[in-house]
TrEMBL record:
Residue ranges constituting the ZW10 C-terminal helical domain according to the UniProt record: 588-742
Entry protein name: Centromere/kinetochore protein zw10 homolog
GO CC terms: endoplasmic reticulum membrane; nucleus; RZZ complex; spindle
Keyword Cell cycle on entry: yes
Highest classification ranks of the organism: Eukaryota, Metazoa, Chordata, Craniata, Vertebrata
InterPro entries: Zw10/DSL1_C_sf (IPR046362), ZW10_C (IPR048343), ZW10_C_2 (IPR055148), Zw10_middle (IPR048344), Zw10_N (IPR009361)
Record domain Centromere/kinetochore protein zw10 C-terminal: where: 436-566
Organism in which the protein naturally occurs: Pedionomus torquatus
Centromere/kinetochore protein zw10 N-terminal domain boundaries: 2-84
Residues in Centromere/kinetochore protein zw10 middle domain copies: 142-379
Length: 743
């Protein structure tokens, strides 16, 4: 029963809340249907009215835009028309600037019309054509006027060239009448300003500028004899030229500047002092003048021409003249200033002045250029023109400035050359004259001159500004590097073919190496201050030069050795000399070798230093003797007659060999060297021992061997001696006994 009560209770609580929810739903339904009605009302009536209003508004707006456009187009057309009318009036009155301005107005109206999108009028094309015709018409009138203002009278270009044609050229400038007499046509100003308005001034001026450069300015720079003449008549100004005798190849910069300035002054006065646009009332600022425009067009070419054909030539070639160059710098400055005053040049232009002020660097460049050109000419000249070097010939060394002399750059006195026995390495230290002595020999005179050039240039360097000093020092180093690269290649064939040239080249290299040892040292006071510690030296180049000389000479020695062996190879191995034909071949080979050596002895005579000469000749004679020994020792059978003939061939070598040693031209002085031949020919004693064996009996050979302690043992091995005994003697008991003793 209790459970029923509980259910009833819950239910009675639930019922009322259920009823209130249903009530709410019915209210919401009512509201929704109201909204639907309202919505339908809006859609049907209000929206329709609104759409109509917007459409009407848009239509009106487009109508307005169309009308405004039409109105503005008509306005522009009217502007164009008025401008063309005003232009025609102004042109008739020769008011050129006004006319040109009206044309520009018409042009801008037309531009505006053409920019209207969606409004392409057929008439625009016609207007464009009209404008072009009128512009050309105006330019034609202006051109006519311009031709009257500046008249070039030039000779027909075919007739003559250069100076001739310049002398017959004239420029006539029509004078602008004063304010009162304004009858005689338009002024220069109005013609030029009208050109400017139409944007054609540049073209006109460019042509004028080119004519001016070609017929007036450049000739004045190039021909020293040309003088400008000016003549003023009532209504015209004339610029013409006359040619006077010139005493120099190049005019000084001062003269050239004077002439060019004169021309510019004339142009400025009669033609170019014209502002490009008409003055604006309220503005007083700087206006571009015609002079400035022309200046811009021609200055670069003109300044280049002035530098290349005038300033370059005025750069001094030795440092003593550098001081006088201040004058050139001053006149360059004044020239630029004058052109700036006339507005031909902008205020910051200083091309010429910078070039002139940079004279030290140009001086150095020019000097270095000259030095290298001179050096190259010396290197490519003939090697065989020689001079003799003796131990007491030092290069004509300049007396060097003391430690302080470099400071004040007054070195006029330094270049007195001393032909002094002692090398003046420093003024205070006298070295023995043989400390750095070279052996007597011949070198190319061109190399001596090259060395003098190096000394002169270094001397010049010590007297120059720091920058120049450094450049000159390095150009001297370049001389030697150039020699190292150029000479062996340039003279390659001759150095290979001609033994005398190889010898001279060897001496040249040794001579240069010798001087390079001390070259920097002599100038060290001045140079080391500027170049970093001790860089003022040439010592590093010495080994290269020694090697260069040696290699060339050794290559020549190899060629000569090759020829000796080639000749001896035709001696039939010196075998079977009892055969007449074989003997003749061997004899001929030996004669040829001696002849070759004799010829070399002659061409190297007085050229190579004596010690080098003796070593070289000794080496070659040794090659021949050594080859003969090798061939004879290798023979397996030598008859008595063979032995005699071989002996006489060897005797020829021993008697005539030393006579090829003729290092000096005076014969009596060569005896000493001929007697010393064994010193220079390594195999001399071996050869003499071989001759003894060819004539000796068995006992004598055994005695010469003397248990391996005799002279024979000093030159030949036991095996070689045994081989010779077997070849020379028949197989007997005595021979066996002798062979047994050789060990």
């Amino acid at each position: 029963g209790e459970v029923c009560n509980m259910i009833n209770k819950k239910y009675s609580e639930f019922l009322p809340s259920m009823e209130s929810a249903e009530d709410l739903v019915s209210k919401v339904d009512g509201l929704a249907s109201n909204i639907d009605l309202l919505k339908a009302g809006i859609e049907n009536e209000v929206q329709r009215d609104l759409n109509v209003a917007v459409a009407e508004f848009t239509e009106l707006k487009q109508q307005l835009e169309r009308d405004t456009l039409v109105l503005s187009v008509l306005k522009k057309l009217q502007e164009f028309d008025t401008a063309i009318k005003d232009y025609n009036t102004a042109l008739l009155e020769k008011k050129y600037v006004a006319a040109a301005q009206q044309l520009e107005k018409a042009r801008s109206s037309l531009k505006t019309l053409e920019s209207r999108k969606g409004f392409e009028l057929k008439i625009l094309k016609a207007l464009g054509t009209e404008l072009t015709v009128q512009t050309q018409n105006m330019l034609y009138h202006l051109g006519e006027e311009w031709q009257k203002l500046a008249v070039w009278k030039l000779p027909p270009s075919k007739e003559s060239s250069g100076l001739e044609s310049v002398v017959h050229s004239e420029l006539h400038l029509r004078m602008v009448p004063s304010e009162e007499g304004e009858i005689s046509g338009p002024s220069v100003t109005s013609v030029l300003q009208a050109f400017a308005v139409l944007g054609e001034l540049h073209t006109k001026l460019k042509v004028f500028g080119q004519l001016l450069l070609k017929h007036v300015l450049k000739p004045l720079i190039s021909y020293p004899s040309l003088q400008p003449l000016t003549e003023e008549q009532s209504d015209v100004f004339i610029l013409r030229f006359k040619s006077e005798e010139a005493n120099l190849d190049h005019s000084s910069p001062m003269e050239v500047f004077y002439k060019i300035q004169l021309v510019f002054e004339v142009l400025h006065k009669y033609l170019l002092n014209v502002p490009l646009e008409q003055p604006a009332e309220d503005k007083k600022e700087h206006r571009v003048t015609l002079a400035e425009l022309l200046g811009n067009m021609i200055w670069e070419e003109l300044s280049d021409c002035l530098i290349q054909n005038c300033l370059v030539n005025s750069i001094p070639t030795n440092s003593s003249k550098l001081e006088q160059y201040i004058e050139v710098i001053k006149s360059t400055e004044e020239f630029e200033k004058a052109l700036k005053n006339m507005q031909f040049l902008k205020g910051d232009t200083t091309d010429l002045l910078e070039y002139a002020r940079n004279v030290n660097s140009h001086f150095a460049n020019k000097k270095c250029q000259d030095v290298i050109v001179a050096a190259r000419n010396l290197m490519t000249s003939e090697i065989h023109n020689t001079v003799k070097i003796t131990p007491d010939s030092s290069i004509a060394l300049p007396r060097l400035p003391g430690p302080t002399a470099g400071d004040h750059l007054k070195t006029g006195k330094t270049s007195k050359l001393l032909h002094n026995d002692t090398m003046n390495l420093e003024n205070e230290t006298k070295l023995s004259q043989y400390t750095f002595a070279l052996p007597m020999c011949r070198i190319s005179s061109s190399v001596e001159k090259l060395m003098e050039l190096a000394y002169q240039t270094l001397l010049e360097a010590t007297a120059s500004t720091d920058q120049c000093c450094i450049q000159l020092f390095y150009s001297v180093r370049n001389i030697f590097q150039l020699f190292y690269d150029v000479v062996p290649t340039y003279h390659k064939e001759n150095l290979q073919k001609l033994p005398q040239l190889a010898a001279i080249h060897h001496n040249n290299c040794m001579y240069i190496a010798h001087h390079l040892l001390t070259l920097g040292h002599q100038f060290r006071y001045r140079l080391t201050n500027i170049l970093c510690d001790g860089a003022a030296t040439f010592v590093d180049l010495v080994p290269g030069f020694r090697r260069l000389g040696m290699e060339c000479f050794l290559a020549q020695m190899r060629v000569q050795k090759g020829e000796i062996l080639e000749r001896l190879s035709s001696a039939r191995n010196f075998s079977n000399m009892d055969d007449e034909e074989n003997y003749c071949a061997a004899n001929k080979a030996i004669r040829q070798v001696l002849h070759q050596l004799k010829r070399l002895g002659k061409v190297w005579q007085d050229v190579l230093p004596v010690t080098v000469y003796c070593k070289a000749m000794g080496t070659l004679l040794n090659t021949a003797l050594s080859e003969i020994v090798t061939r004879i020792v290798a023979l397996e059978d030598i008859s008595a007659e063979d032995a005699d003939r071989l002996y006489s061939l060897c005797r020829t070598m021993v008697e005539e060999g030393p006579q090829v040693f003729t290092p000096l031209p005076e014969d009596d002085k060569n005896k000493k060297y001929q007697e010393e031949v064994p010193v220079y020919v390594q195999k001399w004693m071996t050869f003499k021992e071989l001759m003894i064996i060819l004539q000796a009996n068995l006992q004598e050979i055994v005695d010469q061997w003397a248990d391996g302690k005799g002279p024979l043992a000093a030159e030949f091995s036991a095996a070689e001696v045994k081989s010779l005994i077997r070849a020379l003697f028949q197989n007997t008991e005595r021979r066996a006994a002798a062979l047994a003793k050789i060990k």
